[in-house]
Amino acid sequence: MANNINVAIKGIHAWVPEHILSNSDIEKMVDTTDDWITTRTGIKERRILKNEPTSHIGMKSVKELLKKTNTDPDEVDLLICATATPDMLFPSTACVIADKVGIKNAFAFDLMAACSGFLYSLTTAEKYIKSGMCKKAIVVGADKMSSIINYQDRSTCVIFGDGGGAVLLESTSEDVGIVDSILNSDGSGREFLHMKAGGSDKPASIKTVQEREHFVYQEGQSVFKFAVKNMADVSAQIMEKNKLTSNDIAWLVPHQANKRIIDATANRMGIDHEKVMLNIHKYGNTTNGTIPLCLWEWENKLKKGDNIILAAFGGGFTWGAIYLKWAYN
């Protein structure tokens, strides 16, 4: 297949659980206040998934996506699931989702890049389609963060929620789709954001469970500083590389980690805050779910040809930006 084809998002669907965990609920669990949480993060509530795994979020999203785009499950060649909270270490959550929705002709795998995973996965799927190896790819970004959050740790329990979404990618000869991407990582940042136990470095034991080491550990200040700089830098960089001014951009779709990080990114890009997708107040940080949740909520406001920048920052550290032109009205 010729490399002058473009790869575009042809559909989006997302899903969040019904159960709401509000700031006033969290006030009863740890020593914090609604005002403290709102001022520092911009979060008012988050959704919590009860009695189901991450694949349930993926299944709900993909099922509706297939219906919406009139896609037969047999037509899907590739399914990537970006997640930090797989159902189990193996098999991949992508394989489980594919089975739950009846996708039988695809190869499926998980991609782990913490909160940047959805961007890494979009770029990966785009390359597979460009190479001619597949025609239709589904990228899922989903996380059940409540499964790895310590609700006695006020520095992390206020931030995260559960949810996610999925996009369908296909080739097109039109001047739309993914135009460019910049992806980065710096493994020295791992000490500031990680899960201490449960991997091969520190396998699960009675001691690791008792010491509550199977939860997210974060040094908030270090992560915040690094995220503010790098998410803003990479977003400005992709604009510069593609000779875009702030007037050219229809929407910034930022990873919903913290409202202050989002504001800093928009300011660095010179983008008016009306052009920034923001739903962190409703869902918190759903890790790989934040960007698809935004695209889904704003879908009816997106116009064919809109210049959109997706930007994310996550544990690793990982970060990146994608410039795409929206493919449909």
Major β-sheet profile: 5 strands, mixed
Number of strands: 13
Q: How do the strands of the widest beta sheet line up side by side?
A: 1-7-6-4-5
CATH topology of the largest domain: Peroxisomal Thiolase, Chain A, domain 1
Strand content: 15-25%
Question: How many individual domains?
Answer: 2
Give the name of the CATH superfamily of the largest domain.
Answer: Thiolase/Chalcone synthase
The termini sit apart by 27 Å
Uncertain regions spanning at least 5 consecutive residues: none
Could you give a short description of this structure?
The chain folds into 2 domains: 6-174, Thiolase/Chalcone synthase (Peroxisomal Thiolase, Chain A, domain 1, 3-Layer(aba) Sandwich); 179-325, 3-Layer(aba) Sandwich (Peroxisomal Thiolase, Chain A, domain 1), CATH 3.40.47.10.
How would you portray this structure in words?
- This protein has 329 residues and is α/β, with parallel strands linked by helices.
- The chain has 2 domains: 6-174, 3-Layer(aba) Sandwich (Peroxisomal Thiolase, Chain A, domain 1); 179-325, Thiolase/Chalcone synthase (Peroxisomal Thiolase, Chain A, domain 1), CATH 3.40.47.
- It has 11 helices and 13 strands.
- It has a 5-stranded mixed β-sheet, with helices on both faces.
- The longest helix is centred in the last third of the chain and has 22 residues, at 220-241.
